[in-house]
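Encode chain A's predicted structure.
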Amino acid sequence: MNNRLYNDYGTWIRTVFPYRVQKLSVDAGFTCPNRDGSLGTGGCAFCDNNTFSPAYCRGRLSVGEQIEAGKDFFARKYPDMRYIAYFQAHTNTYAPSLDHLKRLYEEALAADGVVGLAIATRPDCVWPVLLDYLEGLARHVFVTVEYGIESANDLTLRAMGRGHDFACSRRAVEETAARGIVTCGHVILGLPGEDETESLRQAPIISGLRLNILKLHQLQVIRGTRLAEEYARRPFRTYSAEEYARLVAAYLQLLRKELVIERFTSQSPAGMVIAPQWGLKNHEFADMLCQYMSQNGIYQGQLADGGSAPKPPQD
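Encoded structure for chain A:
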């Protein structure tokens, strides 16, 4: 149990809704500027969208059909569940027009039991008119925009082929938060070239963004990606579960207390993961982390207000 060692998403979302809610992933058929040739092809070095697409989420079905399939999946256990339509696969603001996006988002909101949207995108794929539309939508329903920040280090972003710099992420977060839209950021810990010291250097920078929610996860080397090719040529370090738990605990100490933490890990299908192979479910890692934090008197925000930076965790 967390016992408020960190500001967890589950506790926070219960203050937003008076009922149980569940995210339903939607594949609305988007692509990405890093795949269609606008910026590059093949995607970012670490990326394979198949690692987080559930079985009920298929782009060949309409948005509404995917939502109904997802509801069937969850309603067997929680018949009174409400849902947030999670536009997750690829870049979910990357479309030929705002009208195209409106049709997809509003199709999701028209589904019975859907009470909000979560829209995953890149920081270089939003523009003022879109954000103005989402601001208006957020006055009536729950809306989260989730940005793939991944790193605050421009050298890392370049090496991973992201196609944007950290200033772009900062600007997108600022413009979204300024409109009162719930804003989420996604960061990967352990990218090649970023050791514990570099991750801890970045933690206050990420904390200083106007994010409401932060998602962390460990670097995973996924079959078929450019990163997998690099790993085969010259294996680089990936964290053990214990090493990663120590790093996350130190990272949390440097984050402001009110920043909501949605997750710490990504649990990709085992057959797709080259390294690291932990054999842990997400909740099992969270339990390990909380045990370590509790035993060592660590909590989120402990050093965020001018305290000494934690030393990189040691074995």
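The first strand starts at residue 21 and ends at 26.
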